[in-house]
Write a structure and sequence with these properties.
Elements lengths: L2 E6 L7 H14 L4 E5 L7 H4 L9 H5 L10 E2 L5 E3 L5 H6 L5 H8 L5 E5 L6 H9 L2 E6 L3 H16 L4 E9 L8 H8 L3 E6 L2 H8 L4 H4 L4 H14 L3
Parallel strand pairs: 1-5, 1-6, 2-4, 2-5, 6-7, 7-8
Antiparallel strand pairs: 3-4
Bound molecules: adenosine-5'-diphosphate and magnesium ion (MG).
């Protein structure tokens, strides 16, 4: 059975795109047939962090009814398949988020895992990915404002019939003032599945349009993403 995860958060910049790219790559490296899809159709950057920003056919064209989803899937050397979104405003305006569910019904036929990189916030294109996933993973940073906004996404997910599978605490530091993972779990009312530290390797790898799990596989963040993949794939 294919499992669909939506990677979501209340705020922008918590690390959804990095989590989608690296968790997806780590699952592919475990031999799982994995597709990641950029549903942040307004502020798309999944393609950018993976070197696919020049792709002519993207989710924009698919959601505009101008291309088939198969034409918008790009395979990387790791075996990970990526559906990027376009970066033009015009493409965003022409894309109809209501078509996403139909697109997903095609993708799940050919994958063990599909990860959806969701936009921040509670716009229509953000709500659909919450409803169509088997599990929503909430990417939070160890700050109260990040948690408060993600609690809202959790409530919204439940309102639209979706389910939160857990929390990924990203950009964690060892500062004494930092909220503990246990406290964050309590505030969120969901299990913290993995803690990914603040790690400059993430940005360094992104500058080379390469996932950190490939470029710096022994860095603390890469190890965190790989533990999360192993947990999801049941190999841990
Ligand atoms: P989102 O998709 O939620 O808006 P991104 O994944 O684009 O967030 O991440 C926002 C910024 O934070 C990027 O510049 C990214 O490189 C950086 N970042 C994400 N996770 C980490 C981390 N664990 N350590 C250091 N920098 C990170
Ligand atoms: Mg993003």
């Amino acid at each position: 059975m294919t499992k669909v995860f939506t990677i979501a958060s209340g705020k922008g910049g918590t690390g959804k795109t990095m989590t989608t790219a690296n968790l997806g790559t780590a699952l592919a490296l475990l031999g799982k047939r994995t597709i990641i899809l950029d549903a942040d159709i307004g502020m798309a950057n999944l393609g950018l962090v993976l070197g696919l920003e020049k792709s002519k056919i993207t989710l924009h064209e698919v959601l505009a009814g101008k291309a088939d989803i198969q034409q918008a899937i790009y395979e990387l050397p790791t075996g990970l398949r990526v559906v990027p979104s376009g970066i033009s405003l015009q493409g965003f305006q022409n894309a109809d988020p209501d078509r996403l569910q139909f697109v997903m019904s095609k993708l799940v036929m050919d994958a063990d895992y599909v990860l959806i990189d969701a936009p921040a916030g509670i716009s229509k294109d953000g709500v659909i990915p919450l409803a169509i996933a088997d599990e929503v993973l909430l990417v939070v940073n160890p700050e109260l404002s990040s948690l408060a906004d993600s609690v809202k996404i959790k409530v919204l997910t439940e309102m639209v019939g979706g389910a939160v599978g857990g929390v990924v605490l990203n950009r964690a530091s060892s500062e004494k003032t930092m909220l503990t993972s246990q406290k964050i779990g309590q505030i969120m009312g969901a299990e913290v599945l993995e803690v990914i530290p603040e790690d400059a390797s993430v940005r360094r790898a992104a500058a080379f349009k390469t996932p950190v799990v490939v470029m710096y596989p022994d860095s603390p963040a890469a190890k965190g993403f790989k533990r999360l993949a192993a947990r999801i794939a049941g190999t841990k």
